[in-house]
């Protein structure tokens, strides 16, 4: 179980750095009059809120991982949701490279 949590945290560190870079690009686009959207993700991605930047989504996943790490046994449904959120973030962040 600890190995799974460590791997999730490693991925979060990578995603966090990419999210900061992508948020800067989004800020630049918005200043140029682009980026008129309501949220980065739809409800299908598993997030329960809407945001126009990546950082809130990364922090949401980090909180989920923290919740998983405080239990003795991993809740497979929660783990699946965390993985789904991470995949969504990685896929969208890949478009900003």
Task: Describe the 3D structure.
The protein is mostly helical. It has one domain. Helix content is 66%, strand content 0%. The protein contains 3 helices and no strands. It has helices at 2-31, 55-69, 76-94. Helix 1 (2-31) runs antiparallel to helix 2 (55-69), helix 1 runs parallel beside helix 3 (76-94) and helix 2 packs antiparallel against helix 3 (76-94). It is elongated and about 50 Å long. It starts with a helix and ends with a helix. 19% of the residues are buried.
Describe, in short, the structure shown.
This protein is mostly helical. It is built from 3 helices and no strands.
SSE order and pairing:
Blueprint: H1 2-31, H2 55-69, H3 76-94
Helix pairs in contact: 1-2, 1-3, 2-3
Largest sheet properties: none
Number of strands: 0
Task: Give the overall form.
Answer: elongated
Q: Structural class, from helix and strand content?
A: mainly alpha
For the CA atoms, what is the radius of gyration?
14 Å
**Unreliable segments of 5+ consecutive residues:** none
Helix content: 55-70%
Q: Number of helix segments?
A: 3
**What's the oligomerization state?**
single chain
Query: Strand share of the residues?
Result: under 5%
> How far from one another are the termini?
32 Å
Mean of the pLDDT scores? 92
The succession of helices and strands, N to C, reads HHH
């Amino acid at each position: 179980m600890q190995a799974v949590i460590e791997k999730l945290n490693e991925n979060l560190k990578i995603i966090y750095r990419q999210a900061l870079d992508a948020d800067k690009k989004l800020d630049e686009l918005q200043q140029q009059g682009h980026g008129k959207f309501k949220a980065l993700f739809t409800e299908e991605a598993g997030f329960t809120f809407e945001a126009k930047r990546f950082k809130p989504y990364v922090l949401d996943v980090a909180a989920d991982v923290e919740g998983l790490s405080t239990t003795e046994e991993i809740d497979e449904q929660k783990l699946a949701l965390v993985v789904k959120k991470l995949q969504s973030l990685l896929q969208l962040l890949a478009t900003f490279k």
